[in-house]
Amino acid sequence: MAQNDTYIDDKCFAAVDAVVGAKDDEGKMAAAGKLMECLAILEETFQKSSKGLGFFGGETIGYLDIACSALLGPISVIEAFSGVKFLRQETTPGLIQWAERFRAHEAVKPYMPTVEEVVAFAKQKFNVQ
Fold first, then answer.
1. Which of 2, 11, 81, 98 has the highest CB neighbour number within 10 Å of its CB?
2. Claim: this prediction has a pTM higher than 0.85
3. What is the pLDDT of residues 37-55, one digit of tens each?
4. Domain covering 7-125, topology
């Protein structure tokens, strides 16, 4: 992933958009598969680059952590609306732990909305009950 700094924007957000915009079950399944592929690559990247530490770059939050954090809100909303879990212990354990650490970090916590707040905002914005 280091060779393509735009992977998150080009692939992951495109996959998120495809999940949201899918019109039928076949399209939803294909888009969900692409998002799962993106998350698998991010999981692999996290495992390699974190070297067992808390963040992509090691002990402190870096550029890749900030870039990946932008996916947390949209994925949370998709999970809440669809009932499908994309971040799962069996497939993305590192990303799950990373997301918890990132959200709880003292530099992030005061500014990062909770999952519940993001979902409530999306429900209001898209008029979903």
1. 98
2. yes
3. 999 999 999 999 999 999 9
4. Glutathione S-transferase Yfyf (Class Pi); Chain A, domain 2 (1.20.1050)
